[in-house]
């Protein structure tokens, strides 16, 4: 049986999704302010690492990095509503890409597992 | 704390410190320029120990395998033995052949490398003088059109390299070059793709190379170059580019100035706004953006939101020397 990562389409799918996902995120008024001063190249590299993880691919996910990386945003008011908005945006991106719903559900489950680290809970 | 051993001395690297910062703190002279992992002038070699991935980001594979790394990007987790890279490996000599004013503040500098030098117009090289003075300049020339390398150099306030080039350098003088570096160049293959090129100041240099490279390669898609300056007198190559636009139906050139003046056929206003007045929608385009980070970074994001794929936005940010 092939893995989730292979079923979605591997690293090529990650590259394609970064574009769609990040465009939706930047245009999402609920969360766009958190990205106002970020460097796009660095942000894209982070999105890629995150999506590789969420797609069940080979990754270096570290809860500690995730926690430290978002601490300044939590201090700036990042909360569960924003986390859920990102998850919705990811779902929308994957739907636009034509990914099957059962695979999307698996991706969102993995993404949701980062919640406590992202929100510093 | 990791230790850095260099030329027989061992230095303790404090937390969050890069190898370059550690060596500089101990008064060890190591050449550096951009401090952002772009210019590669602080390249060093490590014989052992684990190098963080970021320290080797952007280096060619052959250099990575030799243990080359960028000292300004290396926050060591293990102790490292480090050495200078043999300069013959990364530098070559070039002789100035011509220096001419292009505007009141920008000069054109032409030079001939002593060895065969393969590059793509739009890449950049480091000029190296007296060991540690290093500045990056984009290549404006096109190999198919000219043998010499061409650069556009703006005179910077108290600029050490630009001051020397403007005031003292003469044809026949020589200097060392490192490179070519960077990935902001024309790639043949999608000849129908629409190209947007936006530059501020001497950000025109790489774009002037890229436009002519694309036209030379027979690019058929529309090519729109917008060049912005604070004032009209900051624009240069205006007549040359207008002539190029007359010769090529698919090439459009728009000179822009932020401050108003009375000259016709120049657009006035913020170059970012002018760009999106022309092109509110950029899906399927490729964008080349070169110049000051305060203009170029927001433009990069706007191009992306206007529909350009991330991989189709090529950016060359001109960081002021540190």
Q: Can you characterise this structure?
A:
- The complex is a heterodimer of chains A (121) and B (322).
- Chain A has a single domain (4-119), classed as Orthogonal Bundle (Globin-like).
- In chain A, 69% of the residues lie in helices and 0% in strands.
- Chain A contains seven helices and no strands.
- The mean pLDDT of chain A is 89.
- Helix content of chain B is 21%, strand content 30%.
- The longest helix of chain B is centred in the middle third of the chain and has 13 residues, at 204-216.
- In chain B, helix 6 links the parallel strand 13 and strand 14 (251-257).
- In chain B, the strands form three sheets. In chain B, strands 9-8-11-6-7-10 form a six-stranded antiparallel β-sheet. A six-stranded parallel β-sheet of chain B has the order 15-14-13-12-16-17, with helices on both faces. In chain B, strands 2-1-5-3-4 form a five-stranded mixed β-sheet.
- Classes of the chains: A mainly alpha (121), B alpha/beta (322).
Query: How many domains comprise the coordinates of chain B?
Result: 3
Seen as an oligomer or otherwise, the chain set is: heterodimer
Give the class of chain B from helix and strand content and strand pairing: alpha/beta
The CATH class of the largest domain in chain B is Alpha Beta
Low-pLDDT segments, ≥5 res of chain A: none
Could you spell the SSE succession of chain B in H and E letters? Answer: EEHEHEEHEEEEEHEEHEHEEHEHE
In DSSP terms (H or I, runs of 4 or more residues), the helix count of chain A works out at 7
| Helicity of chain B, as a percent range | 10-25%
Q: H/E order of the elements of chain A?
A: HHHHHHH
**Largest pleated sheet of chain B:** 6 strands, antiparallel
Mean pLDDT of chain B: 90
Span between termini of chain B: 27 Å
Got a strand count of chain A? 0
Strand count, sense and closure of the main sheet of chain A? none
**Fraction in beta strands of chain B:** 25-35%
CATH homologous superfamily placement of the largest domain in chain B: Nucleotide-binding domain of ferredoxin-NADP reductase (FNR) module
Q: For the record, what is the CATH homologous superfamily label of chain A?
A: Globins
State which percent range the strand residues of chain A make up: under 5%
Give me the CATH fold name of chain A. Answer: Globin-like
The greatest interface between two protein chains, and residues involved on each side, is: A-B, 11 and 9 residues
